[in-house]
């Protein structure tokens, strides 16, 4: 029996068995195109269609949205998403493309949306037919999220939206956006409200999506401009002026610290892609020549590699410990570390790999001589997306210092 | 064998940890500890053995020194993760006593086989013990010893012996005609001399111990095998002591940062103070996660125990230095004085940092396992 299967309830054990069998038969075959490193870098229609077809089949089989009630398109199970996730990852399926929908929009709509809205939006979100994006950041509102200026003005039972959002991943494919905006300019926090907005239907009619190009050269995120976009009041989540509280639900789930488990899958690599974890770092060090020996013989590199290995093990074991109440002193102390640890670990592993690769670390995707197909420089560059997005590492340290250690707010 | 999800940390372990925290807090709160061990600030002070032997007797009666004795040898055979929980509390209290030494000796004796049964009975009967393995250079290699045994008697000097002034027995490694043996020695036997070291740490004592033809019982003729089996548990418990002490350093420094005001703000408002304290917290959590994993491996996955214990103590050793430096620095001027309690933990941690191998040493050993053996 696998370690993760040990503590399953009877329902979970039966569901795990079901997932395993279904995946053995239905895991999709090799993708027809190179897959990006994460859903946030989906650039082309063929990539998207391949991944959407996979998400739809997994949803229809009951592996996605398991813990949501059946009335909103969920599986109506108790604590089973975790099981499906473990099995999908173990089976090395492709990842799920509707990552913002599943991880952020779904729990937010579920906790704050009206019943009718949930029933209408969530099934197509779970199936991946509707891709979702998130309109939070603005040119003038990054780490200081509450300073967003995008404004909705009331006209009858409609709202008219004007403003400018940035870093909007997947907006070029998205049907819907979760949107944090301002309905009152006189209160910073209490002047915020939260909407879901059908942006695809409004392209060219009040919504403009323009791609931004990342330091890796990839597209994937965008700026989104609203010019007199009319939106119905029924698309508002929770009460007027409660936008900040609703946004906290979104962010908590984004940082994997919320109630509802986010569906996760992945592991499949296509073509020239390689893993970028400590196991592949060790492989790189063993196979890279340095002078008469291997890079793995250099004492300074050995120390750096072991630091990364230890940090990765610590992260893995911290996730394990998070599930044991007896070993926690403060309920949020470990969950609130997840995002910070995962992103800084990825950065350290990739940085160490570039040091190990040495001169060959200069070679990128299109170069036949690039170690690991050029994935290491790409992983290192992309890791800054992780340490900056969803609250920078600096903001994460503020949150931990204030909410867990009770230190005075730095603002 | 796979590890249980909960590290084997069950209800009994949780009760033991709570009981230990209460015992130390009730009997030797930090102000009382300071009075007990820090009465002489003279930098030229000689060796001292400051402890509450009456409290140690109570710990023995509570059964804490027999926790790690295997059930087959008449002990409690508690999972190592439960013992680690107790040792975290010991570290949090910076409590002066020979518990770590006694547990360490237990692990080695338990790996020695039948010949060590009487020695384990000694520990079961409440005798305190410590390891005498180290040479004058402080070599962390478990095989480094300057002692020689011949004709049933020991000669030479063992260095860096922890809490030697508090124990009844010594477990010494010595070169024999056949290789490397382990010997169980009465600390009061004729020919044993304990020379206290003048050390910085006020919460422990340390000595070099000379042996002049001392009668000793050989408990193992293959010291290396027993030590290699026992060292993962020894490293893991030192990591637990460090994690507990670091948690005290963190909480005490955070409390100070929340009350002390400068520039009209509590110190914790300033990110130059707040963020490194968060990093101390993260460091503690990494060490705790790693040490429970190592402890659980000692119980259920022995082939991985060495690897995981290297990880735990490498991280813990670095944490000991980092948490200590931040605790003094963020207490500012008062943190630099003898009257502020943080120096007790600072000194204990700096001692622990280099006790059974520092971070670089453990990473080097780990690298030999992960980089130099077949994948």
Automatic annotation (TrEMBL), chain A:
<keyword id="KW-0560">Oxidoreductase</keyword>
<keyword id="KW-0285">Flavoprotein</keyword>
<protein>
    <submittedName>
        <fullName>Acyl-CoA dehydrogenase family protein</fullName>
    </submittedName>
</protein>
<dbReference type="Pfam" id="PF02771">
    <property type="entry name" value="Acyl-CoA_dh_N"/>
</dbReference>
<dbReference type="InterPro" id="IPR046373">
    <property type="entry name" value="Acyl-CoA_Oxase/DH_mid-dom_sf"/>
</dbReference>
<feature type="domain" description="Acyl-CoA dehydrogenase/oxidase C-terminal">
    <location>
        <begin position="241"/>
        <end position="405"/>
    </location>
</feature>
<feature type="domain" description="Acyl-CoA dehydrogenase/oxidase N-terminal">
    <location>
        <begin position="10"/>
        <end position="129"/>
    </location>
</feature>
<keyword id="KW-0274">FAD</keyword>
<dbReference type="GO" id="GO:0050660">
    <property type="term" value="F:flavin adenine dinucleotide binding"/>
</dbReference>
<dbReference type="InterPro" id="IPR036250">
    <property type="entry name" value="AcylCo_DH-like_C"/>
</dbReference>
<feature type="domain" description="Acyl-CoA oxidase/dehydrogenase middle">
    <location>
        <begin position="133"/>
        <end position="228"/>
    </location>
</feature>
<dbReference type="InterPro" id="IPR006091">
    <property type="entry name" value="Acyl-CoA_Oxase/DH_mid-dom"/>
</dbReference>
<dbReference type="Pfam" id="PF00441">
    <property type="entry name" value="Acyl-CoA_dh_1"/>
</dbReference>
<dbReference type="InterPro" id="IPR009100">
    <property type="entry name" value="AcylCoA_DH/oxidase_NM_dom_sf"/>
</dbReference>
<dbReference type="InterPro" id="IPR052161">
    <property type="entry name" value="Mycobact_Acyl-CoA_DH"/>
</dbReference>
<dbReference type="Pfam" id="PF02770">
    <property type="entry name" value="Acyl-CoA_dh_M"/>
</dbReference>
<dbReference type="GO" id="GO:0005886">
    <property type="term" value="C:plasma membrane"/>
</dbReference>
<dbReference type="InterPro" id="IPR037069">
    <property type="entry name" value="AcylCoA_DH/ox_N_sf"/>
</dbReference>
<comment type="similarity">
    <text>Belongs to the acyl-CoA dehydrogenase family.</text>
</comment>
<dbReference type="InterPro" id="IPR013786">
    <property type="entry name" value="AcylCoA_DH/ox_N"/>
</dbReference>
<dbReference type="GO" id="GO:0016627">
    <property type="term" value="F:oxidoreductase activity, acting on the CH-CH group of donors"/>
</dbReference>
<dbReference type="InterPro" id="IPR009075">
    <property type="entry name" value="AcylCo_DH/oxidase_C"/>
</dbReference>
Automatic annotation (TrEMBL), chain B:
<protein>
    <submittedName>
        <fullName>Acyl-CoA/acyl-ACP dehydrogenase</fullName>
    </submittedName>
</protein>
<dbReference type="InterPro" id="IPR046373">
    <property type="entry name" value="Acyl-CoA_Oxase/DH_mid-dom_sf"/>
</dbReference>
<dbReference type="GO" id="GO:0003995">
    <property type="term" value="F:acyl-CoA dehydrogenase activity"/>
</dbReference>
<feature type="domain" description="Acyl-CoA dehydrogenase/oxidase C-terminal">
    <location>
        <begin position="237"/>
        <end position="370"/>
    </location>
</feature>
<dbReference type="GO" id="GO:0050660">
    <property type="term" value="F:flavin adenine dinucleotide binding"/>
</dbReference>
<keyword id="KW-0274">FAD</keyword>
<dbReference type="InterPro" id="IPR009100">
    <property type="entry name" value="AcylCoA_DH/oxidase_NM_dom_sf"/>
</dbReference>
<keyword id="KW-0285">Flavoprotein</keyword>
<comment type="similarity">
    <text>Belongs to the acyl-CoA dehydrogenase family.</text>
</comment>
<dbReference type="InterPro" id="IPR037069">
    <property type="entry name" value="AcylCoA_DH/ox_N_sf"/>
</dbReference>
<keyword id="KW-0560">Oxidoreductase</keyword>
<dbReference type="InterPro" id="IPR009075">
    <property type="entry name" value="AcylCo_DH/oxidase_C"/>
</dbReference>
<dbReference type="InterPro" id="IPR036250">
    <property type="entry name" value="AcylCo_DH-like_C"/>
</dbReference>
<feature type="domain" description="Acyl-CoA dehydrogenase/oxidase N-terminal">
    <location>
        <begin position="11"/>
        <end position="102"/>
    </location>
</feature>
<dbReference type="Pfam" id="PF00441">
    <property type="entry name" value="Acyl-CoA_dh_1"/>
</dbReference>
<dbReference type="InterPro" id="IPR013786">
    <property type="entry name" value="AcylCoA_DH/ox_N"/>
</dbReference>
<dbReference type="Pfam" id="PF02771">
    <property type="entry name" value="Acyl-CoA_dh_N"/>
</dbReference>
């Amino acid at each position: 029996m696998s370690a993760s299967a040990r503590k399953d309830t009877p329902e979970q054990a039966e569901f795990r068995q079901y997932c395993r069998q279904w995946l053995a038969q239905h895991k999709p075959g090799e993708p027809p195109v190179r897959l990006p490193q994460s859903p946030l870098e989906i650039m082309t229609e063929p990539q998207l269609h391949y991944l959407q077809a996979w998400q739809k089949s997994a949803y229809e089989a009951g592996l996605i949205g398991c813990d949501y009630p059946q009335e909103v398109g969920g599986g109506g199970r108790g604590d089973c998403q975790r099981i499906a996730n473990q099995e999908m990852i173990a089976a090395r399926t492709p990842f799920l493309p509707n990552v913002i929908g599943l991880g952020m929009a779904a729990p937010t709509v579920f906790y704050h949306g009206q019943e009718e809205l949930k029933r209408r939006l969530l099934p197509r979100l779970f199936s991946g037919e509707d891709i979702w994006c998130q309109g939070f950041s603005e040119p003038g509102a990054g780490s200081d999220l509450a300073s967003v200026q995008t404004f909705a003005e009331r006209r009858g039972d409609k709202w008219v939206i004007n403003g400018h959002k940035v870093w909007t991943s997947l907006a070029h494919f998205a049907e819907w956006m979760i949107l944090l905006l301002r309905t009152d300019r006189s209160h910073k926090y209490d002047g915020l409200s939260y909407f879901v907005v059908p942006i695809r239907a409004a392209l060219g009619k009040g919504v403009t999506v323009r791609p931004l190009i990342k330091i890796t050269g990839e597209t994937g995120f965008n700026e989104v401009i609203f010019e007199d976009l009319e939106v119905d009041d029924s698309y508002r989540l929770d009460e007027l002026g409660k936008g900040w509280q609703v946004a906290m639900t979104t962010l908590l789930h984004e940082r994997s610290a919320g109630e509802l488990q986010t569906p996760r899958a992945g592991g499949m690599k296509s073509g020239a892609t390689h893993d970028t974890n400590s196991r592949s770092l060790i492989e790189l060090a063993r196979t890279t020549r340095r002078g008469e020996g291997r890079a793995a013989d250099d004492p300074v590199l050995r120390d750096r590699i072991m630091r990364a290995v230890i940090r990765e093990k610590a992260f893995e074991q911290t996730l394990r410990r998070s599930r044991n109440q007896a070993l926690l002193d403060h309920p949020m102390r470990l969950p609130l570390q997840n995002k910070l640890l995962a992103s800084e670990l990825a950065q350290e592993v990739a940085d160490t790999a570039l040091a190990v690769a040495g001169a060959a670390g200069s070679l990128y995707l299109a170069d036949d001589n690039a170690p690991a197909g050029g994935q290491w420089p790409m992983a290192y560059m992309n890791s800054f997306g992780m340490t900056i997005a969803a609250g920078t590492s600096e903001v994460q340290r503020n949150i931990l210092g204030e909410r867990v250690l009770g230190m005075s707010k730095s603002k | 064998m796979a590890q249980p999800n909960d590290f084997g940390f069950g209800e009994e372990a949780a009760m033991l940890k709570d009981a230990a925290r209460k015992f130390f807090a009730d009997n030797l709160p930090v102000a009382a500890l300071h009075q007990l061990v820090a009465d002489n600030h003279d930098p030229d002070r000689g060796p001292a053995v400051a402890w509450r032997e009456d409290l140690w007797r109570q710990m023995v009666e509570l059964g804490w020194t027999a926790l790690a004795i295997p059930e087959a040898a008449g002990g409690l055979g508690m999972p190592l993760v439960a013992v680690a929980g107790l040792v975290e509390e010991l570290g949090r209290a910076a409590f002066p006593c020979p518990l770590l030494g006694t547990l360490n000796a237990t692990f080695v004796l338990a790996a020695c086989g039948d010949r060590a049964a009487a020695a384990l009975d000694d520990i079961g009967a409440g005798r305190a013990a410590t390891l005498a393995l180290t040479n004058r250079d402080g070599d962390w290699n478990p095989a480094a010893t300057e002692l020689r045994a011949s004709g049933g008697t020991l000669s030479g000097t063992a260095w860096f012996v922890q809490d030697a002034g508090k124990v009844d027995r010594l477990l010494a490694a010595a070169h024999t005609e056949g290789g490397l043996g382990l010997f169980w020695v009465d600390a009061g036997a004729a020919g044993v001399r304990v020379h206290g070291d003048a050390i910085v740490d006020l919460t422990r004592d340390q000595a070099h111990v000379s042996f002049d033809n001392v009668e000793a019982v050989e408990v193992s003729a293959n010291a290396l095998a027993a030590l290699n089996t026992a060292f993962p548990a020894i490293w893991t418990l030192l990591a637990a002591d460090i994690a507990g002490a670091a948690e005290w350093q963190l909480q005490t420094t955070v409390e100070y940062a929340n009350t002390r005001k400068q520039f009209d703000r509590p110190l914790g408002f300033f990110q130059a103070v707040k963020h490194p304290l968060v990093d101390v917290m993260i460091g503690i959590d990494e060490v705790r996660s790693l040490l429970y994993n190592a402890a659980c491996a000692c119980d259920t996955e022995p082939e991985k125990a060495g690897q995981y214990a290297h990880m735990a103590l490498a991280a813990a050793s670095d944490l000991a230095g980092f948490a200590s430096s931040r605790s003094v620095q963020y207490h500012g001027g008062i943190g630099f004085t003898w009257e502020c309690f943080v120096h007790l933990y600072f000194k204990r941690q700096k001692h622990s940092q280099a006790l059974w191998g520092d971070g670089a040493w453990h990473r080097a050993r780990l690298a030999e396992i992960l980089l130099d053996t077949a994948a």
